[in-house]
Design a protein that fits this description.
The complex is a heterodimer of chains A (192) and B (402).
Chain A: E1 2-6, H1 10-20, E2 27-31, H2 37-44, E3 48-52, H3 58-67, E4 75-77, H4 84-93, E5 95-100, H5 105-153, H6 157-171, H7 175-188
Parallel strand pairs in A: 1-2, 1-3
Antiparallel strand pairs in A: 3-5, 4-5
Chain B: E1 3-9, H1 16-23, H2 26-29, E2 32-38, H3 42-50, E3 56-60, H4 61-69, E4 78-83, E5 86-87, E6 89-93, H5 95-101, H6 110-126, E7 131-135, H7 141-152, E8 161-165, H8 171-176, E9 182-186, H9 189-195, E10 200-204, E11 215-220, H10 221-226, H11 228-245, H12 251-259, H13 268-275, E12 278-280, E13 287-289, E14 294-295, H14 306-320, H15 326-335, H16 338-345, E15 352-353, E16 367-369, E17 371-373, E18 376-378, H17 394-400
Helix pairs in contact in B: 1-11, 4-14, 4-15, 11-16, 12-13, 14-15, 14-17
Classes of the chains: A alpha/beta (192), B alpha/beta (402).
Chain lengths: 192, 402
Amino acid sequence: MRIAIVDESASRAAVIGEGLAALDDCEIFVVTERRGLVARIGEIAPDIVLMDLGNPSRDVLEEYFAVSRALDRPIAMFVDESDDEAIAASIDAGVSSYVVDGLAAHRIRPILDLAVKRFNAFARLQADLAEAKGRLAERDAVDKAKRILMDSRALTEPQAYAELRKTAMNQGRRIAEIAEAVVTAHQLMGGK
Amino acid sequence: MSAELTIGFLPLVDACLPILAREHGFAEDEGLSLRLVRDMSWATVLDRLLYGHSDAAHLVAPLAIATTLGRGRPAQALSVPFVLGLNGNAITMRPELARRLTSPGTLGDPIRAGAALKLVAAERCAAGRPLRFGVVHRYSSHNYMLRYWLAGCGVRPDHDVEITTVAPPFCADALEAGEVDAICVGEPWNSVAVERGAGEIVLMTAQIWRRGVEKVLAFKERVLDERRADVEALIRAMVRAARHFVDPEHWDENAAILARAEYLDGDAVLIKRAISDRLLLAKGSEVVPFPDFMFQYREAANFPWVSQAEWLYTQMVRWEGGKIDPGEAARAARVFRPDVYRSALTGGAEPLPGASSKVEGSLGQTTVVGTQQGRMTLESNRFFDGGVFDPADLEGYLASLP
């Protein structure tokens, strides 16, 4: 089975492709370029096309599937009415799937399930990464704010941290938010 | 406790009414909290609507009908209780082509420009490189308006010229790269192409059909029924947004809101041109005013005329090369829901027409029409070729078209 993965995010496409490569009898093609997309899909002649929902070329590709009589085998969006939940899960995960006419649902489903799993895994990775980046940035702001308080009010480091914590508790906000406010205020007052 | 409604949209100027209903607090005044979800393709806006990620969608009108009739995927009934606007699109061509049709900075005349286009199309066919037009979706008013104009000028779509789909954000790129010779798209994407020198605006779709239906707000029929009170509240909020949108006093403010990163993520200067019906047609020329380029409020612009849904259905059948199917025609007509629009606004200050269907293209001048409430005049709603669409005879109309 020939599977085309169309995704402008090369890293996500790689994660999906790697997951599907484990399937037997499947050849995976990854397309990340928008230019020449339709021609490339024509060359690949896929049985299944997986495309991320955020891809701006979806309408272009759907048009190609719908009207191109040049295609040997018509391709349509995969909508399994017997199991709407599975399709809903793929939309939730952010992936749309197109399959050639005549491909049985039981052959498509394992591939789609795997793609959904991989999409979700990728989304989790991204979320983890964003969270880790956020935590790093927060720690950085707290360090800077402590330094500002230590310099301007001659506090020790534990005292500076205690000040930030007390203010945060009094205002019902997070320490990182107070730290950011201190850093911003300091910058506005001409500090570096 | 306010009810939450999630609305999907594409970054286009005519997504303005739900955005402004939210930003100016009109929705909140009606007890609604609006969440707006931006996407990059109509396919995804539609998927989110069908699978419940959104409650309503900014949609190209023919796609609501195509979805109801099961074109391209299994049929799912959609309902349109509100039209987000009329027209607002333009045809932009690569400069060397545009100059065969009109002089730079001047709008073309649909008949004369069409005659000139016919010559170029023949030349290009003879040279083995047929002219290629880009539209934003096969089930779009852009596609049907463009085809109506071409066919009316003796240029046969799919024979004398090719028509393909190009995503709005890439229209300027596609013109520049020569992937297409012309595009029919909404704002700000014509203006983006003009600014880049990739294209020149030759025609506005309002010149093809003075009052052509464009984007709509679509719901799944079941959701419309279940959330009827919220839908009607949203209609009232969007009518207020429409009144605000057309008021010159608010143009700068609204252009700035629409330009924001979470909405159109675009240039407020270009967006304001569309809002104020003043477009720059070619780089280096003067801005040209064209009244009613966009049409969001007057003459009950948001009223879902059943005849407009029926006109779109005739065009769908026309270009599919099929026949009118009375059952399909009835289902297409029922997509537009003037009853819901009326129910939302009855007893208020907004005029409501007496009829729910009209003979499209029949008015050559300002005409007073009968109303259910308020006073209402309709201005010219002509097609460029003088065609008249009587919804009482779909087959006769289809047979009369070239």
